[in-house]
């Protein structure tokens, strides 16, 4: 008996890698801070090439309506072998999120996925009407007719309009009630952020405090909601993020308005107490704090909110 992977597993690995590369490419084009962070890290001698950076996780936002939302979106990454893990609830923001662990078969160093969904039925009748005006044109789950083994098709799907371009009036009405709703109605499945694993950088930059100090010295504007560094109650997941890039967005009828796009996140996952005796060169992802933290995430969402972008 051989245990070598069958052809379809190899194909899926390649498709997943191509899909992730496509997401990163378009995201880097849209978010100048990505290159600016890489350039600052190169200039400081933290890295010799951006390829050395470990991507801790990527994040997506969805509208919780029939045929869309997490139930539809997650099918893409479950197909490539991601596994659905813990649920997180954000009562005030009316959001549900899950994280997905990457398939171990590729060495286990692929990004985790954090995906969230707006509980549209908890919004005001007016906001629900606005959202449904766009999303009701999606009358069957678009992922069901997508060939998930075709990387180019998946890449196109993730970057295509799922519904009509909103009017500026609708965008503003949503913004007043749910900044998340406004973000998704315009940005859809565009990558919301990627995340630099700070703990795997070289000493003097491998804690979030040191890395944030470096970013601030270099003039990056960081999300201050709940404090610049968000710390989980166990102390082992520490996160910070930039304030979202502003984009000149064209709305239906040609009106242009500056809106929040995507941002960059930084995460330090500390070694779990049981493994702190291990020598550094034996530490892998399995020895570090896993998953996410509701209290941290609640504030990181605000990286795209007017309270941060308008500071
Ligand atoms: C996600 C915010 C939460 C994290 O790492 O906890 C998050 C978002 O802004 O969509 O990224
Ligand atoms: Ni994140």
From TrEMBL:
The protein, known as: 2-oxoadipate dioxygenase/decarboxylase
Family membership: Belongs to the 2-oxoadipate dioxygenase/decarboxylase family.
Keywords linked to the UniProt accession: Dioxygenase, Iron, Oxidoreductase
EC code(s) of this entry: 1.13.11.93
Pfam families tied to this protein: HGLS
TM region(s), chain numbering: none
Gene3D superfamilies: 3.10.180.50
Listed cofactors: Fe(2+)
An MF annotation (GO) of this entry: dioxygenase activity
